[in-house]
ATP-dependent Clp protease adapter protein ClpS
Amino acid sequence: GHRDETDLAVKPRAKTQRPPMYKVLLLNDDFTPMEFVVHVLERLFAMSHAQAIEIMLTVHRRGVAVVGVFSHEIAETKVAQVMELARRQQHPLQCTMEKE
Ligand code: TYC
């Protein structure tokens, strides 16, 4: 392996463990209003209005887009918040997460 400045052997596998990260995905459907999706992206993912429109249109055209990458706990919370807002407004919007 490498040697550090003190000339000690450094184990190549002794790297700091990083926590796994999770992509939060927004899915398209035919019924959720575009303006509701933009509102969700602004409120829950701290996007500017222009950014939110861009991501919403990507989902609309391609079927799915990554809206953020977070730790497991934060990703779970974001998914739950999106699903709760959609449920309250009776929109079929779906949000899910997957390991990066
Ligand atoms: N396809 C929807 C419409 O035409 C808009 C939409 C965009 C819905 C993104 C969901 O995640 C979504 N009203």
User: Anything to note?
Assistant: The longest strand covers residues 64-70. The CA atoms of residues 23 and 69 lie 4 Å apart. The pocket of L-tyrosinamide is lined by residues 26-30, 32-34, 37, 56, 59-60, 93 (CB under 6 Å).
